[in-house]
């Protein structure tokens, strides 16, 4: 029986270990950004071990010890902050990994070069070591500056004119996430393609429509599934990008903007989409993608599992003003919302991440319905602003 080492589970993922045909050891990473409950649902794993997230040597020691006792066949992680540990363990023990194969987790500029070589639509970009390089880039057209190793929209700044350049440079450098990458500013609606890859065969499971606060920082404010757009070109470009990176196994969350010249890649994340996108996928299609990716890791079978959406689901984030956040509200809705038809749940989970205070999750017959219900519920929160106060 396959022995899987799962790194960095969250409660809903760990709950999918129930009824799984394999032996799973759970490695929880203490202090991991975004949080990782150390013990929740550990009881469904064959074994539970912990290591400190920021101690790579400790993580490798623990994995090597486990492997001596009960040899591991595969190591998997499905969240951003588990990926460095997955790559290191796979390389050291010489075992299969998800995402696979492991790589050096190239920065966004190297990814751009690989996408272009793999036939994706080109996006002008330049890794800049000095502000005057950014200036020359911006003179050629509107740009987005972002950290080469960024995530969570940290340090992203749109620059339309050269007089905004210095502010943009400082903003990106302030995030402390690597060099400053300047990219051509892509205009158009934004989407993500949720994919599943097994032994080099890619399946686009669903296209998600994404809402952001727009320039200058493009903070995510919500998602709806299925996307209200023609999805074929988006799926094709996403699959091209996965092949270009050499990705063969595991879920991915591929972000794109549909420009007048067709869909162009924003970035590829070789993991499940965050923001409960896996729950939207289950609500709109019935596919339990969390269970599916665990099955794929245990027993890779490239057969397609997807199907068309039979319903729609949306998530909206409630962002707070500085004052709301500082006062530590749990603001309650001003009017009762519990009985709103289509509301699955709202959660108040304040985080300093762009002052996000919580989320509203809804279900509808179609995407417009699901988005409408989410907006209706959000408006019931005192101080809610649709564009996010970010
Ligand atoms: N070249 C670009 N043109 C237009 N918009 C862009 C561009 N690059 C990034 N953006 C916007 O900024 C957002 C964040 O950029 P990106 O996804 O590269 O950073 P990130 O920090 O990895 O974000 P996240 O983790 O939130 O997905 C994108 O979702 C998009 O809205
Ligand atoms: Mg992104």
TrEMBL record:
Pfam families, A to Z: ATP-grasp_3 (PF02655)
Gene3D superfamilies (UniProt xref): ATP-grasp fold, B domain (3.30.470.20)
Molecular function (Gene Ontology), one example: ligase activity
InterPro entries linked: ATP-dep_AA_Ligase, ATP-grasp, ATP-grasp_PylC-type
PROSITE patterns, alphabetized: ATP_GRASP (PS50975)
Keywords: ATP-binding, Ligase, Nucleotide-binding
Domain ATP-grasp: 112-298
Protein's UniProt name: ATP-grasp domain-containing protein
Origin species: Kribbella qitaiheensis
């Amino acid at each position: 029986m396959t022995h899987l080492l799962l790194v960095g589970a969250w409660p809903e993922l760990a709950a999918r270990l129930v009824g799984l045909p394999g032996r799973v050891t759970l490695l929880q990473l203490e202090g991991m950004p975004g949080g990782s409950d150390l013990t929740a649902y550990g009881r469904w794993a064959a074994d539970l071990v912990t290591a400190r997230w920021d101690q790579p040597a400790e993580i490798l020691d623990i994995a090597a010890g486990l492997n001596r006792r009960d040899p591991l066949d595969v190591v998997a992680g499905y969240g951003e902050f588990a990926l460095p540990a997955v790559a290191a363990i796979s390389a050291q023990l010489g075992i299969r990994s998800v995402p696979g194969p492991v790589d050096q987790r190239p920065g966004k500029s190297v990814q751009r070069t690989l996408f272009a070589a793999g036939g994706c639509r080109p996006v002008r970009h330049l890794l800049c070591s000095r502000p005057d390089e950014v200036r020359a880039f911006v003179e050629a057209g509107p740009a987005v500056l972002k950290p080469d190793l960024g995530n969570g929209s940290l340090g992203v700044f749109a620059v339309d004119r050269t007089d905004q350049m210095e502010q943009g440079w400082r903003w990106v450098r302030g995030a402390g996430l690597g060099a400053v990458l300047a990219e051509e500013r892509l205009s158009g609606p934004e989407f993500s393609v949720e994919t599943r890859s097994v032994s080099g065969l890619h399946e686009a499971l669903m296209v998600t429509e994404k809402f952001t606060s727009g320039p200058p920082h493009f903070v995510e404010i919500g998602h709806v599934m299925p996307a209200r757009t023609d999805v074929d070109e988006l799926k094709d470009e996403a699959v091209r990008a996965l092949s270009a990176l050499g990705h063969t196994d595991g879920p991915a969350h591929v972000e794109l903007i549909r420009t007048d010249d067709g869909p162009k890649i924003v970035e590829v994340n070789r993991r499940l989409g965050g923001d409960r996108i896996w729950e939207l996928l289950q609500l709109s299609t019935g596919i339990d993608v969390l269970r599916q990716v665990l099955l794929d890791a245990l027993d890779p079978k490239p057969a397609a599992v997807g199907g068309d959406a039979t319903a729609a689901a949306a998530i909206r984030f409630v962002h707070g003003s500085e004052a709301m956040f500082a006062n530590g509200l749990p603001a309650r809705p001003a009017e009762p919302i519990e009985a709103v038809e289509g509301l699955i749940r709202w959660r108040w989970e304040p985080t300093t991440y762009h002052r996000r205070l919580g989320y509203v999750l809804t279900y509808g017959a179609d995407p417009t319905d699901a988005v409408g219900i989410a907006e209706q519920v959000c408006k019931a929160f005192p101080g809610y602003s649709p564009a996010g106060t970010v």
